């Protein structure tokens, strides 16, 4: 009988000038990008954390600490490495759902490519990955354009 495990995650980063805005492994045209130790791809970060949580395998910070080894790392690669460990432990993705909270730019034109890239990193197909965007109607740090956040839920099967 299959065992199902669910994990959730949340991440937020400050928006700054001079950095690309990378979401789901896709560089989205924007005058501001997310600040972080890696490329600060909040989509990959929350999906990684949710998957690791579902498997009881810690979190992204434990697997990829803020050391020089991981500085400027591509988060899509980190997601792929984490998921390779999980599949090695017998897990497979049932589905993943990610909500990006960002006032602007709108991410809808880039979502299909994000889903393809993230699904490949999670050793799955795009029909098992949902990535959506929302605003906060001007409220809070995302609404003021100071940062962006993401939350995700991942269901694994073993």
How would you portray this structure in words?
This protein has 158 residues and is of the alpha+beta class. It has helices at residues 42-55, 60-63, 75-88, 111-121, 140-143; strands at 4-17, 21-23, 26-28, 32-34, 92-101, 129-134, 147-157. The longest helix is centred in the N-terminal third of the chain and has 14 residues, at 42-55. The termini are close together. The model has no long low-confidence stretch (mean pLDDT 97).
Main attributes?
158 residues; 60s Ribosomal Protein L30, Chain: A; five-stranded mixed beta sheet; 7 strands; two-stranded antiparallel sheet; alpha+beta
Main sheet: strands, sense, barrel: 5 strands, mixed
Order of strands, main sheet, comes to 4-1-7-5-6
How are helices and strands ordered from N to C? EEEEHHHEHEHE
Q: Helix count? A: 5
Structural class comes to: alpha+beta
Poorly predicted regions:
none
């Amino acid at each position: 009988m299959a065992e199902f495990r669910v994990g959730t995650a949340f991440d937020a980063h400050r928006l700054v000038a001079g950095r690309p805005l990378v979401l789901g492994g896709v560089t989205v045209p924007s005058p501001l990008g997310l600040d972080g130790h890696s490329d600060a791809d909040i989509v990959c970060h929350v999906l990684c954390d949710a998957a690791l949580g579902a498997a009881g395998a810690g979190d992204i910070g434990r697997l990829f600490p803020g050391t020089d080894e991981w500085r400027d790392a591509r988060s899509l690669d980190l997601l792929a490495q984490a998921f390779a460990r999980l599949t090695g432990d017998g897990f497979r993705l049932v589905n993943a759902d990610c909500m990006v909270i960002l006032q602007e730019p709108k991410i809808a034109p880039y979502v299909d490519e994000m889903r393809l890239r993230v699904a490949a990193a999670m050793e799955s197909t795009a029909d098992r990955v949902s990535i959506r965007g929302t605003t906060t109607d001007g409220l809070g740090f995302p609404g003021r354009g100071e940062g962006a956040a993401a939350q995700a839920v991942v269901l694994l099967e073993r």
